[in-house]
DNA sequence: GGACTTCTTCCCGGCGCAGGACAAAGTCGT
DNA sequence: ACGACTTTGTCCTGCGCCGGGAAGAAGTCC
């Protein structure tokens, strides 16, 4: 069931495709304004894109004072699959060539079960999306996994929370199953790509994207490109020491950021606070559901629970200390905070901001926005689609 | 006394020039092996380089089994000026086009006197080098300053240790004086470029270069290019918190790495140790010279002074903690330790290594060399020459 | 309805560039 | 010493990229 997607023949065509992807339908004349090419050349390249079926004509554009131009848009039947595998759930979405999400499924899942059952589930979800008429086939798929990846090969390497995946040829296997090109990356990197396409980072070239969920990671974008490091483990900031001689961490050290502030750590703190009677609200929730999550802390804090506010503030301060260091080091133009704990909202953001603005030098923080992610689960799947679209929209 | 240096006309020529710069003289045939160009094209471009005088023919190369090829080398009369302005001294060197140092002067200087007297001194040193017959004029000059720089304009911005320089048009002024292109950068970035050209980083694309001198900074190289951050302050790691609620720092915070371990901090610790009678060796040196520097600590440690060994070990551990965080975050392929404290030698390196290998994750440290800088003062000036040569060897 | 603007197509000539043919210069074996 | 083979450098041809002019198509504005 292989689906042969045409590929751009040269860099000009690739450039045009990405422009159409990022800025939507555009008239030939507008395209001419954006890509430094002569009219004749542009006409030839656009015509070839139309011939190969990657783009289609789409009626007439509004006049700009003279003859009306023809609209060009990416082929409306192109489909990308975005998959975001988390620690405890999986997101699968279908997008069109402009990376608009046409359908999105979320299901609980345990990544520790290993690649084979997880992929069965993912393929089932993809089939479901296909069956609902959203796609006839896929022109590419991007996959995010919660651990480091040897990017060129698309293979997870030594992932701490998904040991069974070490060395599993994710890219190869999925490409076989889906019959289309596949790219694999760390989930945090994909979140960063999502921000680049649809989020706060659209006009920034150097930024950090901190994801605080079950674990903690950081997507690093340098000059508009994701920095993955020499072994694919760049951005693994969960095990930076935040508290000297602090809590023991699964990695064997003490005081790791992740041990003091993450979805897991926060839930544990919440349970302790409830059991010690420091927070009636949490105690009530614990009694009701039998367990607590970061969301419960956020809800209780929003309702005014002082203990929960303290937990959030302390955690934000810890995270802020580490982020302040990264800001001093990297001097980004933007920091985006995302992941499961985003539900803690502005209390968290305020604590992080305070710490960063206090600890980093004025030159680095002077014009540095620190914002919450606004895309939620969309960021990951859009980032995945963006990753593979960059690949498909590059010369063969 | 403007000297008009030819510039490459296209990217091919630029490529060839850089190849000749980095790998020395080469035969036409060898050049053909390294650049993906047809023989005809290559011949045309090389001939043009010869015509413009950027390169010269240099005899016949050894035979590779057939007709002997002609050697090509960069024009032997090209000269770059490398200037490295430190906090308390200045280095000026002349290099040829292959960035070999032909002459090198070092003089004490106080950067706080401001740009005008410092530049007078620099120009005097350059004139001295010229007068000794090393250069007739300069085809470009690179300048390193100990503070952040707005790179495109070549202007220092808000430099803490050189307040008088804020906004001074270094690039413009020196270009006027010297009559040649000038580029300005942070001294740490230039040290990193020096490692790339002549040091440990020749075959690495992503690495960090930590300079521990009067202050502490870090050069960041991503994909073979220096990362300067959005405001030019990337790598400013001296004010990352190393010790919660630690010593007060000039920046207004507490526990900054620089307050606990730098040339200045170490000298102060040494004086205290001497006065408190914890180190007879240091006391003797203090009595003799009236002051102490990091070098004294190194010498005493080498002679077996336990207190000094402790000072070095503690400092290395502090630095190692911060570097461990950077390694987790950035996942470099190499870390080079340089700057004034390199004199502390392997005791320092051992402490840093221990801490990094202990605190960072195995995937990031598995194949990570951490080495001492071997170039010393040469790194800065060669890096400066490399910076401007990259500029001169790019299409106009 | 006429003058002006904008957009598209067609066409020409220059340039970059690859690759083949050929000459020059050397090596190696006999 | 000589011929066969290899490597290197030069010349030439042809293709495709590409910019820009000219002309026509389509609209706007007065």
| Major sheet attributes of chain A | 5 strands, mixed
Number of helices of chain A: 14
CATH architecture descriptor name of the largest domain in chain A: 2-Layer Sandwich
Residue share in helix of chain A: 40-55%
**CATH superfamily grouping of the largest domain in chain A:** ATPase, nucleotide binding domain
Could you name the ranges of chain A where pLDDT drops below 50 across 5 or more consecutive residues? none
- How many structural units, i.e. domains of chain A? 3
Give the oligomeric state of the chains in this entry, treating copies of one chain as homo and distinct chains as hetero: homodimer
Given this structure, which CATH class of the largest domain in chain A is correct?
Answer: Alpha Beta
The greatest interface between two protein chains, and residues involved on each side, is: A-B, 47 and 47 residues
Strand content of chain A: 15-25%
* Form type of chain A: globular
SSE sequence of chain A, one letter per element? HEHHEEEEEHEEEHEHEEEHHHHHEHHEH
Radius of gyration of chain A, CA atoms, in whole angstroms: 23 Å
Strand order of the largest sheet of chain A: 6-5-4-7-10
């Amino acid at each position: 069931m292989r689906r042969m997607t045409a590929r751009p023949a040269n860099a000009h065509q690739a450039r045009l495709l990405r422009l159409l992807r990022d800025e939507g339908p555009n008239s030939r004349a507008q395209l001419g304004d954006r890509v430094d090419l002569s009219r004749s050349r542009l006409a030839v390249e656009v015509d070839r894109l139309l011939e190969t079926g990657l783009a289609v004509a789409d009626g007439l554009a509004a006049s700009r004072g003279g003859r009306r131009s023809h609209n060009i848009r990416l082929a409306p039947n192109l489909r990308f699959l975005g998959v975001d595998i988390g620690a405890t759930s999986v997101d699968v979405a279908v997008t069109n060539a402009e990376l608009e999400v046409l359908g999105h499924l979320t299901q609980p899942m345990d990544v520790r079960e290993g690649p084979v059952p997880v992929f069965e589930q993912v393929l089932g979800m993809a089939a479901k999306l296909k069956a609902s008429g959203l796609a006839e086939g896929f022109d590419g798929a991007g996959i995010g996994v919660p651990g480091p990846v040897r990017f060129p090969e698309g293979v997870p390497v030594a992932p701490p929370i998904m040991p069974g995946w070490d060395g599993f040829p994710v890219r190869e296997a999925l490409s076989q199953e889906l019959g289309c090109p596949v790219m694999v990356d760390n989930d945090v990197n994909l979140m960063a790509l999502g921000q680049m396409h649809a989020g706060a980072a659209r006009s920034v070239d150097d930024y950090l994207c901190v994801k605080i969920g079950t674990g903690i990671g950081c997507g690093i974008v340098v000059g508009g490109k994701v920095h993955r490091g020499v072994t694919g483990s760049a951005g693994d900031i969960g095990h930076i020491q935040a508290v000297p001689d602090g809590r023991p961490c699964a990695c064997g050290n003490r005081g790791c950021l992740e041990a003091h502030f993450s979805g897991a750590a926060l839930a544990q703190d919440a349970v302790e606070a409830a059991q010690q009677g420091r927070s009636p609200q949490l105690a009530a929730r614990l009694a009701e559901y039998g367990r607590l999550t970061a969301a419960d802390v956020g809800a209780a804090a929003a309702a005014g629970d002082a203990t929960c506010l303290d937990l959030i503030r302390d955690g934000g301060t810890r995270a802020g200390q580490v982020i302040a260091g990264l800001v001093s080091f990297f001097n980004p133009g933007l920091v985006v905070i995302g992941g499961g704990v985003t539900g803690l909202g502005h209390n968290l953001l305020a604590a992080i901001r305070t710490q960063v603005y206090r600890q980093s030098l004025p030159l680095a923080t002077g014009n540095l926005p620190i914002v919450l992610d606004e895309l939620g689960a969309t960021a990951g799947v859009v980032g995945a689609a963006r990753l593979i679209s960059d690949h498909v929209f590059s010369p063969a």
